[in-house]
Amino acid sequence: MRYNYKMRGTCATEVSFDLNEGVVSDVRFTRGCNGNLQAVAALTEGMTAERLESLLGGIDCDGRGTSCPDQLAQAVRKARV
Fold first, then answer.
1. By CB neighbour count within 10 A (0-12 exposed, 13-18 middle, 19+ buried), where does 55 fall?
2. pLDDT per residue as tens digits for the range 47-72
3. CATH numbers and ranges of domains, the chain
């Protein structure tokens, strides 16, 4: 199933991804640091939701209290509920 999540407090404004049977795929960010976010998307391809959340949740960008990877982890967490 495809999910879209509006991001807050980050340069990227939205993230979308597929979540099927607990596995994340086809992560796409809107705006933000293109090269870094392409890397995040590539590295998380095929990763379990639990693993993604544990690796990326809580990452802070420049004292903002969140980051694009953290927002992706939050989005995946919400999608699983």
1. middle
2. 999 999 999 999 999 999 999 999 99
3. 2-80 (3.30.390)
